[in-house]
Amino acid sequence: MGTIDTMRFQDQSVRIGTQNFDAMDMVPFRTWGKVAVAMSVAKLQKRRTRYNLMKLDHHSLHDIGISVEDADIEIRKSFPMYVRSDS
Fold first, then answer.
1. Among 8, 26, 54, 63, which residue carries the largest CB count within 10 Å?
2. Which of 84, 65, 57 is nearest to 73 (CA)?
């Protein structure tokens, strides 16, 4: 096994979903498109969830078992300038 700087990523097998490919250049373009779309959808869903988390007051956060500090840390991953107004 080579060191990190000598390993060629292109020569390694790739698994995307249930499909295995022998090398990066053997993955069809439409598969990369599907991966890009899935990643974009996941990112938007996380952002939407964090936005909804932003709307909850400390009583609601306590009801679902999340501290205000933990919620604020998670919210700032999508909204870095966020400051809670009711704290």
1. 54
2. 84
